[in-house]
């Protein structure tokens, strides 16, 4: 995985850290889940060609606009469709699953594709409580207090230590690279104490980014996995030929999140629908706040914004997530960033 030290206070004139991809398999208005998954496969192949370091998919449930509800299944398909890019979950939401099931699923992936699999683990259910209960069928394990115990059980299944009479097969001796994900300080501190790499969800919790990364680094203890902290920051990124075009493409994601927060989730709207939506002042402010600290615009604008983010966070890696209506625009955004923002990613990450 590497142990690059966190970089602080440097003049980020160039983006010289690995860039990765987080995808939600968005279901666009007028399309289907099948089309969304095929588009995600197309994107994984293209970002591999461009030299992106890893490609993660996120677990969400009861959301009509997101098709990545079964990360392990989707990752198996993506691994068969690619050959070099690292693949992982961003993340598997551990409260939704028995640790043994996760160990067996990701042990299987690691056995089939050794050295290419990341297991990013989240503490939140990634859905509403009714859906979370339907997934787990019990309230046990759904509380934040139970997360460290569930995580310890999962790690024990991979190592074979303290797993009692149960052997995870595949699983034991087949541990993928384990990451903790978070949007607050809880997982940041736990990742530091366990000596695990940490990925922060700057794309929807920008105000907590710096405090969480500080806590992670202060809490870090060297482990069998890392000698030094390794922090990745996930950021919304929409790159187009002009700032105006990027703004147009980014608008559906803002409207989609607004609808989700107001209890009206649905497919990803078209740019035309987003432009015509009658926002109240409060709604418009909500959307604008969500975009603060993200990277949206022409290649020059995105280069400046990503450089700014690196300078403020000292991140070892950036993970870009691009939620736009049309898959061609999604692919083009990653192409522009690879070719014009960083001057070509085709290198050893």
Automatic annotation (TrEMBL):
GO terms for cellular component: cytosol. It comes from the Bacteria. Gene3D superfamilies: Luciferase-like domain. It holds the Pfam family Bac_luciferase. Residues 20-316 form the Luciferase-like domain. One of its GO terms (molecular function) is oxidoreductase activity, acting on paired donors, with incorporation or reduction of molecular oxygen. NCBIfam families: oxido_grp_1. To bacterial alkanal monooxygenase alpha and beta chains. This is Luciferase family oxidoreductase, group 1.
């Amino acid at each position: 995985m590497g142990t690059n030290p966190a970089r602080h206070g440097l003049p980020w004139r160039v983006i010289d850290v690995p860039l990765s991809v987080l995808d939600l398999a968005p279901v666009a208005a007028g399309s289907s889940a099948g089309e969304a998954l095929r588009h995600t496969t197309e994107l994984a192949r293209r970002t591999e060609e461009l030299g992106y370091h890893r490609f993660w998919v996120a677990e969400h449930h009861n959301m009509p606009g997101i098709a990545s509800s079964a990360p392990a299944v989707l990752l198996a398909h993506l691994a068969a469709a690619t050959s070099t890019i690292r693949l992982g979950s961003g993340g598997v939401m551990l409260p939704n699953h028995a640790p043994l099931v996760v160990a067996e699923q990701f042990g299987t992936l690691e056995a089939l594709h050794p050295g290419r699999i990341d297991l990013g683990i989240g503490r939140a259910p990634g859905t509403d409580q009714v859906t979370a209960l339907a997934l787990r069928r019990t309230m046990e394990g759904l509380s934040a207090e139970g997360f460290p115990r569930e995580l310890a059980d999962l790690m024990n299944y991979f190592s074979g230590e303290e797993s009692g009479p149960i052997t995870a097969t595949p699983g034991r001796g087949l541990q993928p690279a384990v990451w903790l994900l978070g949007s607050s300080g809880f997982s940041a501190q736990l990742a530091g104490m366990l000596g695990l790499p940490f990925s922060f969800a700057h794309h929807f919790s920008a105000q907590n980014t710096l405090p969480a990364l500080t806590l992670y680094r202060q809490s870090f203890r060297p482990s069998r996995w890392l000698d030094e902290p390794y922090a990745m920051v996930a950021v919304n990124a929409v790159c187009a030929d002009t700032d105006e075009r990027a703004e147009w493409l980014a608008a559906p994601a803002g409207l989609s999140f607004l609808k989700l927060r107001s209890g009206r989730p649905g497919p990803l709207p078209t740019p035309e629908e987003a432009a015509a939506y009658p926002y109240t002042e409060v709604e418009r402010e909500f959307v604008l706040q969500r975009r603060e600290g993200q990277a949206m615009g022409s290649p020059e604008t995105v280069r400046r914004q990503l450089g700014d983010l690196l300078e403020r966070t000292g991140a070892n890696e950036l993970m870009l997530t691009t939620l736009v209506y049309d898959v061609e625009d999604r692919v083009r955004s990653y192409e522009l960033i690879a070719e014009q923002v960083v001057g070509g990613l085709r290198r050893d990450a």
